[in-house]
């Protein structure tokens, strides 16, 4: 296939670049507002965080320009080398990084500190895109599944070893890309259901209504409903779904009638009976009908049951104490207004006080009096909410949604699978950061400490997100270089 030279600056996606420039400008101004010092009011003071961020903005823009002039084939040819280099850097970081707030994830080089975990995002995206775009790759081969899992899992484990749980969880966002590329939706559903089971088990673990333990009852019922839904939606097996739903209804109606007219009954045993019967029935279907979906639904039901019984052990013995209290506060199981819940409570107060249009630039009382810790990094969104109000917060979200949709749109236009896969990795990572960071600030998800791209203060994150985006902008031009 022949190639032709194009004018990069005439062909580049300027809409995405303008969104990027607008976001880093708004982020810079927000950092200035969050760290505003009455004694030193200059936004250009390099001794202040706004000045330091401006320096990193310049470095990031220069890095973006450099990325754009490199031949697009470089990123595919050297994807594994880039990935390997970052993996080595992650390993070194574990041993040489100083302890910063319980985390060993920063490499200090004089006045500059870098967080390799941020750069692992684009390196892993490149490596995964390289593997999945290879000629022999087939999602229906277990070996290929394991290879993709290894590429994603290795940086995940290394970053966990650095005590950076939030940065590690970002790699779960690549499930969106895997789903787009043909991964069975049952795997994505399994992940979502595991989260629901985890929450239900913790939330209702000590709740007993009458003589019925609610955690087990709810989870057993949920699994049976899930099995019926999957049979109907995924296999179009309406008859089997009706049998399971009918059996569940009857088995739950019996203890209800007994409890109403005679004596309290433990609903859990009847929900468990429904789960056992549905599992036996699906096992029979998997033997009778040769289809990979029936065994998977069977394994999913059994796996979620065992997972429910492991939740308490995982929570008590694997999670760190500060992670436990954050989850408990988020689920309403604990109230720690001066500890784990302090950040979120103050953030809610700041955002709520902003009202519809906000208090005005530099007029936020919560921000100026430093009530919100990390208000220019992980909690930067509360500064926007207080000073610009609901309208400003929605405006920031609209910018992110526009950028993410633009990336997905451009990715879908690609004929080369390498570029498409990498584009979906980029969009997925931005989506995860947006949802988790905003949800964290609003108290909807536990505080796990991940930045809001282009807004939160931090040179490593800004540079890494810029590299992540500009590599896609350069690769996106491949479709114009080939004919």
Structure description:
There is one protein chain. By secondary structure, the chain is mainly alpha-helical. The model has no long low-confidence stretch (mean pLDDT 88). The longest helix has 33 residues, at 380-412. The chain has helices at residues 8-11, 14-34, 49-69, 73-77, 79-96, 116-132, 142-161, 165-169, 174-180, 185-203, 214-235, 238-261, 267-288, 293-317, 321-330, 342-354, 365-368, 380-412, 417-441, 459-476, 478-481, and strands spanning 107-109, 112-114, 208-209, 212-213. The protein has 2 domains: 13-182 and 341-460, no CATH class; 204-319, no CATH class.
Properties at a glance:
483 residues, two-stranded antiparallel ribbon, mainly alpha, 2 domains, 21 helices
The largest sheet, given as strand count, sense and whether it forms a barrel, is: 2 strands, antiparallel
Number of strands: 4
Distance, first to last CA: 7 Å
Averaged pLDDT, please? 88
Report a brief summary of the structure.
The protein has 483 residues and is an all-alpha fold. It folds into 2 domains: 13-182 and 341-460, no CATH class; 204-319, no CATH class.
Strands, helices and their partners?
Blueprint: H1 8-11, H2 14-34, H3 49-69, H4 73-77, H5 79-96, E1 107-109, E2 112-114, H6 116-132, H7 142-161, H8 165-169, H9 174-180, H10 185-203, E3 208-209, E4 212-213, H11 214-235, H12 238-261, H13 267-288, H14 293-317, H15 321-330, H16 342-354, H17 365-368, H18 380-412, H19 417-441, H20 459-476, H21 478-481
Antiparallel strand pairs: 1-2, 3-4
Helix pairs in contact: 2-3, 2-18, 3-20, 5-6, 5-7, 6-7, 6-19, 6-20, 9-19, 10-11, 10-14, 11-12, 11-13, 11-14, 12-13, 13-14, 16-18, 18-19, 19-20
């Amino acid at each position: 296939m022949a190639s032709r030279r194009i004018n990069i600056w005439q062909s580049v996606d300027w809409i995405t670049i303008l969104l990027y420039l607008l976001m880093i400008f708004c982020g810079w101004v927000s950092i200035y507002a969050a760290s505003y010092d009455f004694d030193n009011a200059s936004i250009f003071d390099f001794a202040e965080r706004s000045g330091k961020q401006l320096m990193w903005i310049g470095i990031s823009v220069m890095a973006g320009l450099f990325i754009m002039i490199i031949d697009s084939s470089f990123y595919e040819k050297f994807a594994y080398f880039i990935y390997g280099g970052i993996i080595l850097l992650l390993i070194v970081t574990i041993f040489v990084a100083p302890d910063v707030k319980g985390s060993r994830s920063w490499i200090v080089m004089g006045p500059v500190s870098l967080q390799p975990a941020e750069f692992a995002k684009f390196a892993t995206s490149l490596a995964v895109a390289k593997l999945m775009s290879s000629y022999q790759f087939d999602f229906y081969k277990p070996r290929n599944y394991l290879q993709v899992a290894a590429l994603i899992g290795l940086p995940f484990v290394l970053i966990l070893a650095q005590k950076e749980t939030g940065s590690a969880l970002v790699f779960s966002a690549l499930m969106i890309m895997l789903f787009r590329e043909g991964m069975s939706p049952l795997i994505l559903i399994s992940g979502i259901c595991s989260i629901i089971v985890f929450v239900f088990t913790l939330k209702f673990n000590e709740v007993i209504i009458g003589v019925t333990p609610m955690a087990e009852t709810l989870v057993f019922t949920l699994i049976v409903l899930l099995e019926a839904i999957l049979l109907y939606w995924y296999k179009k097996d309406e008859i089997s779904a009706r049998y399971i739903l009918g059996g569940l209804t009857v088995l739950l109606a019996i203890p209800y009638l007994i409890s109403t007219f005679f004596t309290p009954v433990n609903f859990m045993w009847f929900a468990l009976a429904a789960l056992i019967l549905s599992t036996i029935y699906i096992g029979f279907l998997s033997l009778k009908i040769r289809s990979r979906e029936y065994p998977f639904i069977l394994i999913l039901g059994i796996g979620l049951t065992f997972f429910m019984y492991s939740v308490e052990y995982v929570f008590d013995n694997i999670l760190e104490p500060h992670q436990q209290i954050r989850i408990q506060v988020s689920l309403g199981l604990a109230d720690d207004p001066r500890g784990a819940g302090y950040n979120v409570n103050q953030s809610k107060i700041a955002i709520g006080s902003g009202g519809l249009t906000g208090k005005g630039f530099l007029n936020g009382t919560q921000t100026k009096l430093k009530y919100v810790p990390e208000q220019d990094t992980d909690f930067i969104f509360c500064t926007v909410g207080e000073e610009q109000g609901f309208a400003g917060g929605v405006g920031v979200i609209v910018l992110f949604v526009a950028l993410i949709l633009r990336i997905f749109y451009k990715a879908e236009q690609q004929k080369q699978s390498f570029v498409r896969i990498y584009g979906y990795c980029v969009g997925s990572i931005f989506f995860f950061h947006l949802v988790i960071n905003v949800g964290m600030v609003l108290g909807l998800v536990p505080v796990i400490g991940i930045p809001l791209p282009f807004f939160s203060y931090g040179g490593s994150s800004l540079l890494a997100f810029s590299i992540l985006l500009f590599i896609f902008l350069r690769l996106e031009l491949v479709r114009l270089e080939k004919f």
